[in-house]
């Protein structure tokens, strides 16, 4: 026990020293640049402490960039109505921690993954009114006049035995894994007006209708293969209006590439759910197979501004991904990868730190990708990069980050893991501005 404490103390000290050395770099760093190397990266490490300064400097710019974030907030519950009940008061401790993280990050547009859907939008409204617009622990309250949410495939019964356990029903046999309809849904909060009439959703798009899909048809059989839906939750194109400009927020939460067998049904679905987004932004002939829930065909028009957001459940190098699924987005000519970084993600993956906590290290030394990680799954999985904010190359990315403070940084208590205080995922953000 004493050696554990000592080792932890050593880790903390080195973090503190590193933090000190980063400070001047931030002051000197340019406020722009998509930041994948050198001083700009160091600047991003310290978001936790310098959030206020960052917000202030944004306010005096003539053309204020939009801060867009994605956050798998783990605001799901085990029964329908339970989240509404929790959010009906202002003192649910998890919701408070989640809201404080959001307030510290201050996004203008925010996608929340794993937020139970209800048709009356009650939970989404309660979270806004009882948590986001209420100062948490002294943080600045946030106003989101616009909310978008829509039905999810989670918990919707297929009537088939998808997991092959000999019985029909339950979370694994639904169109998307879920104990009830709408569990693990999504909600979008925005300071900018949402062009609701132009929203496109792709909840009902059939997996079999994607040409060249990697569905394991032999596993499912012909009948089931032809009814399965591609999206495990839903895929959304939500246009938001910023002045006279439109930015398409493309939201999804592909299924984890895990909890399956040799057939890799979930890993393959994750791959194709991500491919759908890549094809959608490629547009033209590539997207000609796509149809939305209203029956309109095709993908995004050429030259449109967009930002892909969501927990993609896919790490570029690790985890159970099928055929490097996320590279379909990261390698896309239409997409910028801001490579947001955080100090805490590095810390959580230091070999010594992890081994002391009994976690997997899966630390590939030398590739400097540990700071990109966005979720801490513990156990044998460790932490991975799975949450993404990916703007179109048509826009400038001026800054980006992950809310993952190191143990000595402000807000560190909000991401405690044993027990989980907020979520196993971290909020990821990017500042983007539309071009002339
Ligand atoms: Ca079953």
From TrEMBL:
Domain of life: Bacteria
Lineage, uppermost ranks: Bacteria, Bacillati, Actinomycetota, Actinomycetes, Micrococcales
This protein's UniProt keywords: Endonuclease, Hydrolase, Nuclease, Signal
GO function term, MF aspect, one: endonuclease activity
Organism of derivation: Zhihengliuella flava
Domain Endonuclease/exonuclease/phosphatase: 70-425
Any matching Pfam family: Exo_endo_phos
InterPro entries assigned: Endo/exonu/phosph_ase_sf, Endo/exonuclease/phosphatase
Full protein name: Endonuclease/exonuclease/phosphatase family metal-dependent hydrolase
Residues annotated as signal peptide: 1-27
